[in-house]
């Protein structure tokens, strides 16, 4: 028995959970942004930036998922062994869960940032930087997942 | 920065202020209290007139936009203000009265159009009300003839003839009547009921209990005629609206003039606002303000040239506004700095450092030679074609420099539109195993394979970045002769970090480094314990203050880890690009496959550029603001905002003299 199934579950977890986090984050931010835009449509650029900030988690998840697919035989590479498959699954949990919750949290921060820069344009950069403070946790999760995923094919287990 | 006081004759006021406004050399200080013998002149009346005119032109432009919107608004926002000759101002001033009357006409037309449209809506509601009575051939307000009482009205329920008869019979069996149902729908029946005059009261009671009501706004016209008349009127209004719109459209050609006139009044309002703030005596007036040191001579010459005046300069105090001055390489980053906060009184201007690290880190995160070259070229074209204003041009320049750095990093990472060259090579030759490393003649770092190496490199760059920030702090403290803060608070930490770095390097290089690093680090730690409690009075406070300060190491470590985003974002760009390249070749080698490839390639890379350029920009900023600035930069200064032409559409050409 090979570990294909577990590898694929891993890819799905990474992509889907992180994607949900981003979707929730961007969705909430977009709602707030549209509220602001209905008053003043000239703020579109700034609102777009703040809205997109919670969108990176989904990307990270997708990249981990994609790398798993590439290295586990679906899009090239060798079939993983059972142990390797389980490793993929384990590695993907980091960005899956990290992305899910940090995406939601970053979305909330983005909503606050939008409210702040709606009042005064000068606050925009402060809002933007504050929103990115959340992102580091998604990044750390991503790096953990990534470092493991790229090592797994060369592990002899 | 210098302060300046200009005393000039009142008769030269207009000329002098105009020249000051054009040249944008001086920031005028509001004279809070009048000096002895001086007073403020009240110019608020003409100012209000000018401001009203500005509002009027703004409204007029909106009216014009509603009929024919301005085209290409997205790129047009990049476009710089139009340059006009200083002599043109006179012409604009002459024409302004006429342009304002055009604007007034436009707002009138707009009001008329809105009124007519509202009237049409009212008519439309009336028509729907009349709809139900189309078959009726007597006026709606008929109440009685000689012998018969007539009830025209509605019941709040749906009846057919029989049902209505039954309902009425149930109420009062004795009532004699004839009825005609005009229209029935759910919840409403329109009917006419004829009753002998003698039974009128009884009929009224009966009908009331059934909820009968006469129609609102009943007229003496037969419904059909009334509807016809309303339709005619509505048609007439529609034509009128069309005519109004045509007239508005005929004035679209005046848009440019209106814009210029708006700026003209805006500039004049600004000028009068300044006059309001100046001290006047009977014959002279006084301007006080700030002027950058380099511009003193220019300002002096200008004042002497246009007015009879005396100009005095003096050193400005600490709360003077700051004007950043940098070379071409660093200037674009000034915007990033002022977005955070202009330098405060103790700060150095960190723009050159900021600029270097901004370009460097942005490039490392975006890291694609293809994207980099695209940025440089496209932005170059935009700058050439649209000639944007200073501020916008600096922003574009910023990204051009970032583009250069992006290209260099892209070449180092072996990424040109991701792995497009390799993918295309494989696509056309049918091979499957060519990679970028094989195609490129120079050695590359593959972020996917060498992620760990790259992470170490990223954090090393972070260490350098942080050390530079702390170096600035060291320099600032040293300059202020606060040697304790310079050596103990900053210097020891810098050495400690360097010691730890040498230790870490020793793991890979030579064991001797570990010992050397450890000695440095421990030495510094002891030093910190001994010095950090120096603010406390008693010995325990000193000791524990020193120990507690070592806890700061966690914040340095988290700062350093934060630089791992350099790796993460660099990878994101590369992998996303790779994904799109792979998708684009999925349909195989055929005509359809080829078209598919081109479409996916373009769309995919555009998405990737948009997402990752944003990410790189935001995260680079964060690294500067949070990691570096927190080490030394206080900010809180005031930006130098000269008295200038705050115009939206035009700017005056600089005097060639």
The value of Rg of chain A in angstroms is: 18 Å
Q: Can you write the helix and strand succession of chain A as a string?
A: HHHHH
**Strand pairing plus helix content of chain B: what structural class?**
alpha+beta
Q: List how many beta strands of chain A DSSP finds.
A: 0
Architecture blueprint of SSEs:
The complex is a heterodimer of chains A (157) and B (657).
Chain A: H1 4-39, H2 44-52, H3 56-71, H4 82-119, H5 124-151
Chain B: E1 2-9, H1 13-23, E2 27-28, E3 39-40, H2 44-67, H3 73-76, E4 82-84, H4 88-131, E5 148-155, H5 161-171, E6 178-185, E7 188-196, H6 200-209, H7 223-250, H8 255-277, E8 279-280, E9 284-291, H9 296-306, E10 309-315, H10 334-340, H11 351-366, H12 369-386, H13 390-412, H14 420-429, H15 436-439, H16 451-479, H17 483-508, H18 511-531, H19 539-549, H20 553-561, H21 564-584, H22 591-632, E11 650-652
Parallel strand pairs in B: 4-11
Antiparallel strand pairs in B: 1-9, 1-10, 2-9, 3-8, 5-7, 6-7, 8-9
Helix pairs in contact in B: 1-9, 2-4, 2-8, 4-7, 4-8, 11-13, 11-21, 11-22, 12-13, 16-17, 16-21, 16-22, 17-18, 18-19, 21-22
What does this structure look like?
By secondary structure, chain A is mainly α. Chain A is 81% helix and 0% strand. Chain A has one domain: Four Helix Bundle (Hemerythrin (Met), subunit A) (Up-down Bundle), CATH 1.20.120.610. Chain B is α+β, with helices and mostly antiparallel strands and 657 residues long. Among the domains of chain B are: 142-213, Alpha-Beta Plaits (2-Layer Sandwich), CATH 3.30.70.2750; 332-428 and 451-632, no CATH class. In chain B, 61% of the residues lie in helices and 9% in strands. Chain B contains 22 helices and eleven strands. In chain B, strands 1, 2, 3, 8, 9 and 10 form a six-stranded antiparallel sheet that branches. Chain B has a three-stranded antiparallel sheet with strand order 5-7-6, with no helix packed on it. Chain B has a two-stranded parallel ribbon with strand order 4-11. In chain B, strand 8 (279-280) and strand 9 form a beta hairpin. Chain B starts with a strand and ends in a 5-residue tail after the last strand.
């Amino acid at each position: 028995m090979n570990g294909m199934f577990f590898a694929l579950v891993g890819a799905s977890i990474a992509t889907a959970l992180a994607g949900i986090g981003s979707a929730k984050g961007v969705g909430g931010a977009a709602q707030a942004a549209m509220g602001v835009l209905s008053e003043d449509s000239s703020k579109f650029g700034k609102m777009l930036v703040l809205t997109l900030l919670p969108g990176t988690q989904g990307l990270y998840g997708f990249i981990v998922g994609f790398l798993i697919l590439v290295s586990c035989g679906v899009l090239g590479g060798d079939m993983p062994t059972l142990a390797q498959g389980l490793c993929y699954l384990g590695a993907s949990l980091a960005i899956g869960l990290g992305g899910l919750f940090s995406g939601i949290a970053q979305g909330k921060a983005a909503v606050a940032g939008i409210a702040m820069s709606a009042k005064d344009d000068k606050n925009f950069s402060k809002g933007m930087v504050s929103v990115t403070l959340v992102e580091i946790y998604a990044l750390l999760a991503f790096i953990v997942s990534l470092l493991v995923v790229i090592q797994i094919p060369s592990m002899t287990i | 920065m210098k302060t300046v006081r200009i005393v000039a004759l009142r008769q030269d006021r207009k000329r002098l202020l105009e020249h000051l406004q054009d040249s944008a050399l001086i920031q005028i200080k509001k004279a809070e209290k009048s000096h002895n013998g001086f007073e403020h002149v009240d110019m608020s009346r003409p100012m209000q007139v000018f401001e009203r005119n500005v509002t009027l032109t703004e409204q007029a432009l909106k009216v014009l936009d509603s009929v024919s919107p301005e085209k290409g608004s997205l790129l047009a926002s990049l476009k710089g203000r139009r340059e006009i000759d200083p002599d043109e101002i006179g012409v604009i001033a002459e024409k302004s009265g006429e342009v304002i009357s055009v604007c007034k006409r436009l707002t009138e037309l707009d009001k008329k159009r809105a009124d007519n449209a509202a009237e049409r809506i009212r008519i439309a509601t009336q028509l729907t009300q009349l709809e139900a009575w189309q078959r009726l051939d007597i006026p709606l307000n008929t109440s009685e003839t000689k012998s018969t009482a007539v009830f025209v009205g509605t019941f709040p329920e749906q009846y057919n003839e029989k049902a209505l008869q039954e309902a009425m019979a149930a109420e009062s069996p004795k009532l004699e009547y004839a009825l005609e149902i005009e229209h029935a729908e759910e919840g409403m029946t329109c009917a006419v009921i004829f009753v002998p005059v003698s039974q009128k009261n009884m009929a009224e009671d009966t009908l009331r209990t059934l909820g009968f009501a006469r129609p609102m706004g009943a007229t003496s016209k037969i419904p059909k005629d009334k509807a016809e008349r309303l339709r005619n009127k509505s048609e007439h209004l529609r034509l009128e609206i069309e005519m109004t719109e045509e007239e508005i459209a005929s004035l679209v050609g005046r848009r440019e003039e209106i814009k210029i006139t708006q700026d003209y009044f805006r500039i004049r309002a600004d000028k009068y606002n300044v006059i309001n703030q100046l001290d006047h005596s009977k014959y002279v007036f006084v301007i006080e303000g700030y002027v950058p040191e380099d511009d003193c001579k220019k300002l002096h010459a200008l004042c002497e040239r246009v007015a009879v005046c005396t100009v005095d300069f003096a050193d400005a105090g600490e709360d003077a506004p700051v004007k950043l001055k940098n070379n071409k390489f660093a200037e674009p980053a000034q915007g990033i700095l002022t977005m955070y906060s202009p330098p405060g009184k103790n700060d150095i201007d960190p723009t050159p450092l900021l600029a270097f690290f901004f370009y460097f880190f942005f490039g490392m995160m975006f890291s694609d030679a293809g994207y980099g070259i695209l940025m440089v070229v496209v932005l170059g074209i935009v700058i050439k074609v649209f000639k944007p204003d200073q501020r916008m041009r600096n922003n574009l320049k910023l990204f051009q420099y970032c583009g250069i750095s992006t290209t260099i990093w892209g070449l180092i990472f072996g990424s040109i539109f991701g792995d497009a060259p390799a993918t295309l090579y494989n696509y056309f030759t049918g091979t499957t195993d060519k990679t970028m490393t094989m195609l490129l003649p120079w050695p590359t770092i593959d972020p996917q394979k060498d992620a760990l190496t790259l992470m170490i490199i990223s954090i090393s760059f972070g260490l350098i970045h942080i050390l530079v920030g702390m170096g600035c702090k060291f320099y600032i403290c040293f300059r202020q002769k606060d040697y304790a803060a310079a050596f103990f608070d900053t210097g020891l930490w810098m050495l400690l970090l360097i010691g730890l770095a040498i230790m870490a390097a020793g793991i890979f290089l030579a064991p001797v480094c570990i010992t050397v690093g450890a000695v440095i680090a421990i030495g510094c730690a002891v030093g910190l314990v001994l010095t950090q409690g120096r603010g406390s009075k008693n010995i325990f406070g000193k000791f524990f203050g020193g120990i507690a300060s070592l806890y700061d190491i966690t914040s340095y470590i988290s700062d350093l880890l934060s630089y791992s985003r350099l790796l993460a974002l660099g990878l994101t760009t590369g992998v996303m690009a790779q994904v799109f390249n792979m998708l684009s070749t999925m349909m195989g080698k055929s005509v359809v496959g080829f078209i598919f490839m081109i479409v996916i390639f373009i769309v995919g890379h555009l998405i990737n550029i948009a997402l990752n350029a944003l990410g790189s920009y935001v995260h680079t900023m964060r690294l500067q603001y949070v990691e570096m600035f927190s080490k030394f930069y206080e900010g809180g200064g005031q930006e130098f905002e000269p008295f200038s032409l705050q115009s939206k559409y035009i700017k005056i050409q600089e005097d060639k003299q």
